[in-house]
Amino acid sequence: MTTLQAQHTFAQRSDAYAQARPRYPRELIDWLLANTADRDAAWDCATGNGQAAVDLAPYFNVVLASDISAEQIGEGLARPNISYSVQPAEQTGFADNTFDLITVAQALHWFDFARFWREVSRVAKPGALFCAWGYAWFECDPDVDATLVQPVRELIGPYWAANNRILWRGYPDEDIEFPYSRLVPPALTIRAQWSVPQLIDYMQTWSAYKRALQSGDVARELNWVIKAARQHFAQRAPLQITMPLSVVAGHVIKG
Question: Which of the chain's ends, N or C, has fewer CB atoms near its CB within 10 Å?
Fold first, then answer.
């Protein structure tokens, strides 16, 4: 899948994406701050609706948050020191040597890696921290997993892009061509308490789910699974959801 195709996929129902995606753990933000020397400027690249940017805003003088999707930026969470812009990750209008911290949440696997690393090296200050993270699968109650999650995953399986598999593999160097020495982060996990309807809303933001809806037969089966799950779990108490994070991070060494 190309970057433009990814842009189109995530532009669809950007409001739903903003509402359904989970927040990142506090331990992640603490680790970023502990490994960032200065706190003048941060760049949150592929910001979506600004979830990571909002978490960074209290600690930096300015957070510049960019995304290739104008629809996603339109859902951006407003803060006085966050400035949103529509521009690609690989070619921005930011000045050289601007940022103390550069973050990418749930998006690195969509980039043109060679071009993106050149841009990171250009706009980062010497020694700035780069950190990207993402989550793939989640764990929840076994009966919900068997009745809802696994049937949906089987139906949409053929519709995942090759890019998603880079995330599933945990962003290994051979996939992303990471040019800096890796830091070793602590084990980080998203923990959420969701109702079954909230879980369904989240699953419907998956890029493969959106593409599967374009196939009439698969769309009908998906709709049947979702309808049956809503009815079966109508009185279900909130679920405990866990999502392990894959993290790649390093300090930018400028040649």
Answer: C
By the 10 Å C-beta count (0-12 exposed, 13-18 middle, 19+ buried), 102 is classed as buried
> Thinking of the domain 3-251, which architecture would CATH place it in?
3-Layer(aba) Sandwich (3.40)
Residue-wise burial string across 16-39, b where 16 or more C-beta atoms lie within 10 A, e elsewhere? ebbebbbebbeebbebbeeebeee
pLDDT number for residue 195: 95
Q: Kindly report the backbone phi and psi dihedral angles of residue 189, in degrees, each rounded to the nearest multiple of 5, phi listed first.
A: -140, 135
- Given a cut of 80, whether residue 227 has pLDDT beyond it is yes
Q: What is the pLDDT of residue 255?
A: 72
Residue 145: burial class (beta carbons within 10 Å; 0-12, 13-18, 19+) = middle
Q: Per-residue pLDDT tens for 171-213?
A: 999 999 999 999 999 999 999 999 999 999 999 999 999 999 9
Going by C-beta distance under 8 Å and a sequence separation of 6 or more, which residues neighbour residue 118? 90
Q: Tell me the residue type at 100.
A: D
Q: What pLDDT is stored for residue 93 in this prediction?
A: 98
For position 11, what pLDDT does the model report?
46
- Which stretch of DSSP H or E encloses residue 242? strand 239-251
Question: Residue 200: what are its φ and ψ, rounded to 5°?
Answer: -60, -45
Task: Name the token pair of 122.
Answer: 């250009």
